[in-house]
Design brief:
With 92 residues, the chain is an all-alpha fold. The chain has helices at 8-30, 35-42, 46-53, 62-71, 76-91. 71% of the residues lie in helices and 0% in strands.
Length: 92
């Protein structure tokens, strides 16, 4: 069996997952969107969203995260960029 390397986005998501999870939760709550509504809009299960927001789900796929980001009105790239900025601020 041949294992394909992870995509750059996939690697960045795995490294930034705690920051992205908190960002998703923060944006969702500021927009007054429940996890259930976000699940319906993104077609990602509420359980997956809950586990990702709480940091318990590390291996969320790029497609799932992209669907969640779009359901919140932003691109995947914007989501990753903001999470990177948060991570850098926490290191400073």
């Amino acid at each position: 069996m041949v294992t394909l390397p992870d995509s750059p986005a996939s690697c960045r998501i795995r490294l930034l997952h705690p920051h992205i999870g908190r960002l998703i939760k923060n944006i969702r709550t500021r927009k007054n969107i429940s996890q259930a509504l976000l699940a319906r809009k993104s077609k990602v299960s509420r359980t997956t969203i809950s586990r990702f927001e709480s940091g318990k789900h590390v291996n969320i796929g790029v497609a799932h995260l992209e669907a969640i980001a779009h359901a919140l009105g932003m691109s995947l790239n914007t989501c990753i960029t903001i999470a990177e900025q948060i991570a850098q601020e926490r290191l400073a």
